[in-house]
Amino acid sequence: MLTQSGFYVCAEPSDAASATEAAMHLQPDLCLVAFEQPQHRTAAAAAIGVMVPHSKVVVVAEPGQPDMIGAIDAGAVGYFELDGRLEQLPGELWRVLDGEALLSGQMVARLLRDFRAMRRRVDEERGSAPDALLTRREAQVMEHLSHHFSTAEIARRLAIEQATVRAHISAVLGKYGVANRQAAIREYRERRVYLAERHSVEFID
């Protein structure tokens, strides 16, 4: 089917290692990864993406497989589900070679759902941190510092050593690129206001 559509099939490897080796040797414009095991597909996509970065990797799998996100994250530019549309594959592959991504509308919806879920998990892990630059503990220290608590008071409230408080503040100064605590407090407050306003208009499910 592919050869009839103008493609030259230069190799048909049986596993991720041989696929990577073949891609390195043959330098194809397109690599079609269709191994049965999801982990082999993802491994091949990742390895080829690193070793042959100009080659566009497209994963082909049965519908409902768990590796779609992993394959895209590994570097695949497309994920084609074999749901009765096999005859459409050559045309989709030509579009990939023209620079398009190969994802169905349902896959894009899944990606968006997973992205939102990941964003919520990150927010939960960071607690109430209003700034993505800061760890949860750094945000807690800055929140107390912005309310004019001393190093000793912050240490007592967070049940940590004063040296640890100073270390967190020093880390924040470095991340913000400021020279002192007052500048860090101003930056923290400005970021908190900005991010609160952005979340109020962008993250509406």
Structure commentary:
The structure is a single chain. α3 links the parallel β2 and β3 (78-81). With 205 residues, the chain is mostly helical. A three-stranded parallel β-sheet has the order 1-2-3, with helices on both faces. The model is unreliable at 198-205 (pLDDT under 50). It folds into two domains: 3-113, Rossmann fold (3-Layer(aba) Sandwich), CATH 3.40.50; 127-202, Arc Repressor Mutant, subunit A (Orthogonal Bundle). It is built from nine helices and three strands.
Number of strands: 3
Q: How many helices does DSSP assign?
A: 9
Following the backbone from N to C, one meets helices and strands in this order, namely HEHEHEHHHHHH
Q: Termini separation (Å)? A: 42 Å
- Compute the average pLDDT: 84
Shape: elongated
Question: What percent of residues are in strands?
Answer: 5-15%
Mind telling me which CATH architecture of the largest domain this is?
A: 3-Layer(aba) Sandwich
CATH fold field value of the largest domain = Rossmann fold
Domain module count: 2
- Low-confidence segments, given as residue ranges, are 198-205
- Let me know the CATH homologous superfamily of the largest domain: Response regulator
Largest sheet: 3 strands, parallel
What integer value in Å does the Rg equal? Answer: 24 Å
Q: Structural class, from helix and strand content?
A: mainly alpha
Question: Which descriptors would you attach to this protein?
Answer:
205 residues, Arc Repressor Mutant, subunit A, 3 strands, elongated, 58% helix, 3-stranded parallel β-sheet
